[in-house]
């Protein structure tokens, strides 16, 4: 996704994260991988995704279905001309099908083909570590982080944030941006989000 999009995903992490701490029964088995109950956490990178196209398809589908219905952002449909988003409620309940400003028919906001390219691009970035939550061979959650240069941070969040981050670790040339974390509704509240987050962050600690 574009850098601008990544900023907004930060809020999404919070939403997905809540309530998954309480009863996570984690067990680590170095031979079969990390598990939360009967959900397996599987690390992935660019090579993994390109050699498991069915998993990539599922990940893309899950990604689109989660973010298009996320109430914090309301990005169900988009006016391709103004890049203005419309929520599920606006489209499906209020019946908005065209942009009120320009009359352009609204399009799906999260297009699988575009999302697939963006995920593969992220997965190619330096020191990428993604983790999937797999239950009965199906993707039920995901998390990943990317490295951003201070130029990226400056362009996205502006000077204030950039300077604050630089003060935390003046030696570091980059920022780790934990931009994606989600778990399907059916698997929330079991500690999977927490385990995904820990798995991703463990790479950088
Ligand atoms: Zn418009």
List keywords for this structure.
6-stranded antiparallel β-sheet, Aminopeptidase, 2 domains, 3-stranded antiparallel β-sheet, single chain, 9 strands, 205 residues, alpha+beta, 8 helices
Describe this structure in words.
This protein has 205 residues and is α+β, with helices and mostly antiparallel strands. The protein has 2 domains: 3-67 and 111-202, Aminopeptidase; 76-109, no CATH class. 41% of the residues lie in helices and 25% in strands. The chain is built from 8 helices and 9 strands. It has helices spanning 3-17, 46-51, 53-68, 88-93, 112-124, 150-157, 159-168, 192-202; strands spanning 26-29, 33-36, 39-44, 77-79, 84-86, 107-108, 129-135, 138-149, 174-183. The strands form 2 sheets. A 6-stranded antiparallel beta sheet has the order 1-2-3-7-8-9. A 3-stranded antiparallel beta sheet has the order 5-4-6. Strand 7 and strand 8 form a beta hairpin. The longest helix is centred in the N-terminal third of the chain and has 16 residues, at 53-68. It is globular. The two termini are 25 Å apart. 27% of the residues are buried.
Side-by-side strand order of the widest sheet? 1-2-3-7-8-9
What is CATH's topology name of the largest domain?
A: Aminopeptidase
Task: Based on Cα principal axes, name the global outline.
Answer: globular
SS-based structural class? Answer: alpha+beta
Give a quick account of the main beta sheet: strands, pairing sense, barrel closure: 6 strands, antiparallel
Provide the CATH top-level class of the largest domain.
Answer: Alpha Beta
Helix content: 40-55%
Number of helices: 8
Give a count of the beta strands, DSSP E runs of length 2 or more. Answer: 9
Mean pLDDT: 84
Separation of the first and last Cα atoms: 25 Å
Bound molecules: zinc ion
Strand content: 15-25%
**Low-confidence parts:** 1-32
Radius of gyration: 18 Å
CATH architecture of the largest domain: 3-Layer(aba) Sandwich
Tally of domains: 2
Q: Strand-and-helix sequence, N→C? A: HEEEHHEEHEHEEHHEH
């Amino acid at each position: 996704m574009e850098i601008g999009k990544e900023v907004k995903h930060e809020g999404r992490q919070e939403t997905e994260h809540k309530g998954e701490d309480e009863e996570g029964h984690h067990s680590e088995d170095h031979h079969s991988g990390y598990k939360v109950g009967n959900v397996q956490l599987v690390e992935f990178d660019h090579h993994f995704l390109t050699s498991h196209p069915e998993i990539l398809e599922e990940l893309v589908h899950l990604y689109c279905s989660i973010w298009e219905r996320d109430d914090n952002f309301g990005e169900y449909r988009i006016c391709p001309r103004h890049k203005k988003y419309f929520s599920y409620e606006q489209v499906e309940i209020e019946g908005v099908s065209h942009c009120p400003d320009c009359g352009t028919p609204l399009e799906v906001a999260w297009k699988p083909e575009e999302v697939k390219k963006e995920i593969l691009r992220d997965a190619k970035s330096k020191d990428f570590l993604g983790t999937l939550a797999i239950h009965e061979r199906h993707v039920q959650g995901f998390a990943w982080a990317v490295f951003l240069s201070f130029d990226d941070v400056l362009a996205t969040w502006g000077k204030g944030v950039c300077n604050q981050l630089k003060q935390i670790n003046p030696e570091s040339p980059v920022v780790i941006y934990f931009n994606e974390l989600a778990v399907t509704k059916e698997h929330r509240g079991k500690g999977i989000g927490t385990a995904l987050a820990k798995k991703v962050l463990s790479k950088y600690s």
